[in-house]
Design goal:
- The complex is a heterodimer.
- By secondary structure, chain A is an all-alpha fold.
- Chain A has ten helices and no strands.
- The longest helix of chain A is centred in the first third of the chain and has 40 residues.
- Chain B is of the alpha/beta class.
- Chain B has nine helices and ten strands.
- The longest helix of chain B is centred in the C-terminal third of the chain and has 16 residues.
- Chain B is globular and about 55 Å long.
- Classes of the chains: A mainly alpha, B alpha/beta.
- Chains A and B meet through helix 6 and helix 7 of A and helix 2, strand 6, helix 3 and helix 5 of B.
Amino acid sequence: MDEFVATFFNLEVVRAASPILLQGLWVTVQLIVVAVPLGLLGGVILALLSTIRSRWVRWPLIAWVDFFRAFPPLVLLMFLYAGLPFAGIELGAFGAVAIGFFLNTSSYYGEIFRAGIESIPRGQMEAARSTGLTAVQAMTWVILPQAVRNVLPDLVSNTLEVVKLTSIASVVALPELLYQARQAQSVTYNPSPIVAAAVIYFLLLWPAVRLLSRLEHRAVARR
Amino acid sequence: MLSGGAILEARGIHKHFGHLHVLKGVDLVVAPRELVFIIGPSGSGKSTLLRCCNRLEEPSSGSVVVDGIDLLDRRTDINAARRRIGMVFQSFNLYPHMTALGNVSLALRRVLGRSREEAEEIAHAALRRVGLDEKANAYPLELSGGQQQRVAIARAIALEPRVMLFDEPTSALDPELVGGVLKVMRELRESGMTMVVVSHEMGFARAAADRVLFMDHGLVVEEGPPAQIFGEPRAERLRGFLRDLDRH
C-alpha cells in the first residue's frame, strides 16, 4: 500500500512538479478561452447558414460539417502543425491548435445550434417578420434566444468535451497541462504528476458538470 | 387603378404548392374602414390568400398592392411595407421569452427605431386598448389563450397599421375566451381600422362584417353583404357549407 501511495500520490513529486503543472494549467486555460468562444461563434454561423435553403449553400455546408465531425481531431492537429509547413504555411503550435479546434468544435456546436433553431415553431419567425423585422433581426431577437435556451444542456455538455479535448494539443508539443504532467513524469520517473493533472481537470470541470445536471433537471421539470 | 382608394388590392392571385393549386385566380379588394370576412371550408385557400396579402406566402402570380405599395415588386422594401399590415395568427405566436410589454415593444424599437422609453409608452397604450395593461410584465405562459391573443393584437396595432389581417384568431381558444377577443376586434373596427378576417365566427361576421367572401377550392364562389350571404345564399356549395355549420 505504501508503495502504491508513493508511486501514484507522491506529494513530494507533485510539489516539485507544481511550477510546471501550473504553467501547463495556464496554457490549458488560454486554449479554453480561445477555443470555446471561437467554436461557439463558428457554430452559430454554421447554424445560420444552414437555414438558407439554396443548395449552393446547403451541400457545401453539409460536406464541411460532416468532414470536420468525422475527421479525427488528433490527425487534424498533426496535419495543421506538421503538414501545412510543407505548403509554406507556418501556424505555430498555438495557431494550429486554435484553428484545429475551431474547425472541429464549430461543427459540433453548429449542429447543436441548428437543432435549437429547428426546435422553434415557424410561427415565431412569421410573427416577427409580419411586424417588419428583417430576417436577421428576427433571428437575433426572437429565434436565437429561444433556440439557445432549448439546447443549453447540450451546449454545456459539448463545452465539457472541448475542455477535455484540449489535452490532445500535447501532440504538437504545446505545453498544456497534460503535456507538462508527462514531462514531469519522465523526469521524476513517477506518475504522480499525471494524477495531479487529472485532479486539476476534475476541479476545472466539476462546477460545469454540476451546472449541467441542474439544467437537465430543470429541462425535465419544464416538460 | 380601377378601384381607386382601396387600401388592399390583391388581383388574380394564384398559388401553387408543388402540384397543389391552392389559389386559382382570386381578387380581394378592401376599402378603407371596411371589414371583410372570408369564410369557407378548411383547405379552401382562405388562410393562404390572407398570407399572400403580406407576402408571408409568395403568390405564384397576381398582384398585391397595399396602401399604394406594390408588395410583389422586387424593389419594394418588404419590411417597411409589412409594418403597415398587422397580422394576428391562429396560434398567437407570442415570443415566449419576452413579457407582454417586450412582445409589443420589440418591433417599435427594432423596426421603427424608437427609444426604450418611447416604445414602452406606446406599448402600454396598445395594451390598454386590449384591456391588458395590468399584465404588461407577465410572460405569455402566464396568460390565458384569450389574453395571449389580445397581446398579439396589441403587438400588431402598436405599429399603427393601415390594415389588419386576422387568420382564424379565435379557432385555438376555449369557447369562454372567444368573447374577449371578439370584443377587442369590435372596438378596433369601431375605431375605423380596416380589417380582413378569416374566421368561423359566423355570429361576428353577421353582426360586424361589411362584406363576406365565401371561398371554396381556391376560388371566391360568392361574395356580398352578410345579410345576403347568410340570408339568401345562391351558390349550392355555400348553402351546403352553411347547413353543415348549423349542424354543429
